Amino acid sequence: MSSGTRGPLLHRIYKAYLVDQNTTAFSDNVRKRYTIGTLERIAQSGDRMARRAAILALSGLADYESNAVMGRALHDNDRGVRMLAENGIRSLWCRVGDPAQRKALQAIIDLNKQRRFESAVKKAGKLIAHAPWLAETWNQRALAFFSQKKYSESIRDCNQALEINPYHFGAATGMAQSYLRLGNRPAALECFQRALQLNPNLEGVRAQVHHLRRMLKRQE
Questions:
Q1: Which of 13, 151, 153, 194 could be cross-linked to 145 through a Cys-Cys bond (beta carbons 3.0 to 4.6 Å apart)?
Q2: Which domains does the chain have, with CATH numbers?
Q3: 33 neighbors 9 (Cβ within 8 angstroms)
């Protein structure tokens, strides 16, 4: 059955979710009826409500393989789709690797939340040594380095995260913040602009871009 004929069913499932806000029931109902591939097609070519439903479903059901679809949805002409994609894509960045690698990555994230930055750096280094293709590990180590005021190290890791995951607007923003701390405003502006190109919905970043442009223009 084509995504077009499945659209009305997806509408009904999504409308039920909007009423009861039961994410588990929504995911279960979608999982029984749609493949990830079908949801990806709907996310890119369905009507507004179907795109919202598909992006929400991918946020809960998909893994890193759907990263590009979610990244493109950040530029959707519907604000609801863009918001769902921004929230969902962050989850996908952590759904990569085998179960042991995912568990280790979550432990690093938890260490950063607990402000145990030295431990986060050490654990991230071990995971990077075994699985250097996990972009989010590099990003999490960059966060830990930034919090330790090791800005050059943070920039290096942010850049590596972006090399692996070109949709990682968080790494681009983090790199910009590190350049600001180092006093390199032109480089910070370039990175903030890159973050906006990846995710045009970052209003705080947009404000930074306008501010830096004014400051640099006054220095000319």
A1: 153
A2: 3-92 (1.25.10), 99-218 (1.25.40.10)
A3: yes
